[in-house]
């Protein structure tokens, strides 16, 4: 498996900007939300948040890496009356429903957030290595384009 070092993709090209402009939700050079949203950020709390991120806190991380259970492709691909789901943390879910394999928000790379100069270590080691064991994906659903839902390593593999 090739290790990817880039965390983000390339710049938006003129082709894609022209394509975006055909969307009714593209206004004034950006996509507009369908519903009003707030980014309620309390700047007074930011020093404490940053301090906890750097120093850590007793309930912030598990004491040891969380074990990744082996993937049983044969069992996963067997027909079932109900859908099958495997949760890989946060919003990453592998589903099997109506004979189709769907992967929602794959985010299995080593760095859980691209905020330099430090990395955010995942709670499990070698999460990206499970990609090689997964069955063919019929549909990949990316719920939105945040770094943790569009993990470059996962998408490239």
Question: Overview of this structure, please?
Answer:
It is a single chain. The chain has one domain. It contains 4 helices and 6 strands. It has helices at residues 14-20, 46-55, 73-77, 152-156; strands at residues 26-27, 30-31, 84-87, 93-97, 100-104, 139-141.
Annotate the secondary structure layout:
Blueprint: H1 14-20, E1 26-27, E2 30-31, H2 46-55, H3 73-77, E3 84-87, E4 93-97, E5 100-104, E6 139-141, H4 152-156
- SS-based class: alpha+beta
Relative helix content: 10-25%
User: Beta-strand level of the residues, as a percent range?
Assistant: 5-15%
Shape: globular
User: What count of structural domains?
Assistant: 1
**Total of DSSP H or I helical runs spanning 4+ residues:** 4
Q: Count all strands and give the number.
A: 6
Straight-line N-to-C gap = 8 Å
Rg is: 19 Å
Order of helices and strands: HEEHHEEEEH
The low-confidence runs, each spanning 5 or more residues with pLDDT under 50, are none
Describe the sheet with the most strands: 4 strands, mixed
Read across the widest sheet, the strand sequence of neighbours is: 3-4-5-6
The chain-level mean pLDDT equals 80
Task: Sum up the structure in keywords.
157 residues; alpha+beta; 6 strands; 17% helix; globular
Briefly say what this structure is.
17% of the residues lie in helices and 13% in strands. It has 157 residues and is α+β, with helices and mostly antiparallel strands.
């Amino acid at each position: 498996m090739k290790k990817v070092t880039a965390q983000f993709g390339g710049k938006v090209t003129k082709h894609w900007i022209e394509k975006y402009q055909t969307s009714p939700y593209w206004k004034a050079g950006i996509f507009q939300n369908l519903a009003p949203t707030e980014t309620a950020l309390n700047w007074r709390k930011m020093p404490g948040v940053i301090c906890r991120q750097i120093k850590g806190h007793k309930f912030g991380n598990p004491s040891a890496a969380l074990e990744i259970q082996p993937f049983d492709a044969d069992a996963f691909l067997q027909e079932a009356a109900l859908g099958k789901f495997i949760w890989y943390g946060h919003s990453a879910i592998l589903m099997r429903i109506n004979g189709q394999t769907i992967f929602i928000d794959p985010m299995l790379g080593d760095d859980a957030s691209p905020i330099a100069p430090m990395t955010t270590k995942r709670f499990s080691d070698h999460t990206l290595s499970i990609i090689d064991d997964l069955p063919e994906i019929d549909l990949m659903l990316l719920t939105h384009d945040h770094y943790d839902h569009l993990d470059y390593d996962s998408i490239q593999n």
